[in-house]
Amino acid sequence: MEPVPDVPATASGPGRVLVAVYAIFAVAATSRAGVQIATRFDEAPLPYALSAFAAVVYVLATIALARSGVTWWRVALAACSVELAGVLTVGVLSIADAAAFPDETVWSDFGRGYLFIPLVLPVVGLLWLRRTAPTRTPR
Amino acid sequence: MISEFAVAVALSALAVAVWSFVLVARNRPPQRALLAGLAAVEVLLIAQAVLAAVLLIAGERPGSMPTFIGYLAGSLVVLPLGTVWALAERSRSATAVLGVACVTVSVLVLRLYEVWGGAGA
Question: Which residues cross the membrane (chain A) (predicted)?
Fold first, then answer.
């Protein structure tokens, strides 16, 4: 059997702060998307669907970062990458085609409504995942 | 909602946040005094929720009821959940988690106040 590499926990040390911030965004994005879809989905189906997608990504990233193991590390990497791509794409779209984005989503205008934390968070997440990469020599 | 009270709650949460980050800078794990500070903020949050409930029963209405209830419930659970998460690994980072929780509370109280004043989302 191949030896299981020793993975530094992503939820330890500074990672605990990262997980906490991700959890806050997971709850915020889920609630916001929930309210938008429940009350006025017809007004702007695409942004609200993106809002819900963002919520799923945050929830997934939170869980993956909070857990340990190579698989969860990979899930976290995927979630943070998708999140970065999402915030950049939606950021550009919301500025280029403001009419299609009548209401703020977490990723609108690169997350301006959330102090640009949605833009910074995936970058910090990816840097943290590089620090805790399973292929590295254990500490 | 009574604006002076909301401002007082938000400012006390911010004060405890600053206190947390000072302790982080001095490399300290969470201490008893800081936890007492968090408990005091939580008491203020509960008082605010009771106040809001009384005003709602009296017939006053926020800009968006589901959003208001969401923020109100959120404002009550952030500090307990944050504290549980922080104390599971008592380190300098735990103190930072408490600071983040306090900043979150002040943002939530601010949003709560905005929604009470008529903001929709």
Answer: 48-66, 75-101, 113-129
